Model the fold of this input.
Amino acid sequence: MLVEEYGKPTWEQLLSRGSECSPGWYAESQKLDDIRFWDAAMGEGFSEWYEWYLKTEAESAKEPAPPDPAAVQPLLPGSECWEAGIAEHPTF
Done:
């Protein structure tokens, strides 16, 4: 008895970089190839630094920013009645 049918992933989904459908050994092979490539291009240890950078960048992005304080315009002495609409024309 067939309970549920699942679609098969395409070859593109299986073999694309970072795919969650790809086998573990293939994903690990891609990761090692990336490490070798970037360390050769940018210097030994670059991939370790970049991995650290991405992790710390993502963690800091999760922290909420403090809310901006509301702007408050202080009133000048004697201007309280203008604010309340009591005095239409000030007298000097």
In short: The mean pLDDT is 78.
